[in-house]
Amino acid sequence: MFDSLDIMRMAQAFAAHAATRQQAVSQNVANADTPGYRSRDAIPFTEYWRASQERVLARGDILRADEQPATVAPDGNTVSVEFEMMRAVEARQQHEMALGIYAMSRDLLRASLGK
């Protein structure tokens, strides 16, 4: 029943996108000292949503190497731990927003059902 509600599908996709971003951040931080490692981030949510609606989203399409990294170390590593911490905060806020959308939609649905 809830899968047919567009707002629920979008909130679910928003939460999944936030989880993917958090995973990218953790991989970047784990490889902060790996020579030649290029930092990655998830594609923007608008692209993610469009591709998920068209069902053409593959795992390799979600994460991309940063085109304009914050820093480049002499060994070729492009991870900036400070920048990754900012990304982690953005991903957490995105996830909290998705949960808020779920909660408000649930409350609205309960109110419309009279419970």
Task: Give the structure's gist in a few sentences.
This protein has helices at 6-30, 45-54, 59-62, 81-113, and strands at residues 40-42, 63-65. With 115 residues, it is mainly alpha-helical.
Description:
- By secondary structure, the chain is mainly alpha-helical.
- Helix content is 63%, strand content 5%.
- It contains four helices and two strands; from the N terminus they run αβααβα.
- It has a two-stranded antiparallel sheet.
- 17% of the residues are buried.
- The model has no long low-confidence stretch (mean pLDDT 88).
Index terms:
two-stranded antiparallel ribbon, 115 residues, 4 helices, 5% strand
Q: Please tally the β strands and state the result.
A: 2
Q: Would you tell me the structural class of the helices and strands?
A: mainly alpha
**What string, H for helix and E for strand, traces the elements in order?**
HEHHEH
Count of helices?
4
**Helix proportion:** 55-70%
Anisotropy-based shape: elongated
Low-confidence stretches: none
Strand order of the largest sheet: 1-2
Return the average pLDDT rounded to an integer: 88
- What characterizes the major β-sheet? 2 strands, antiparallel
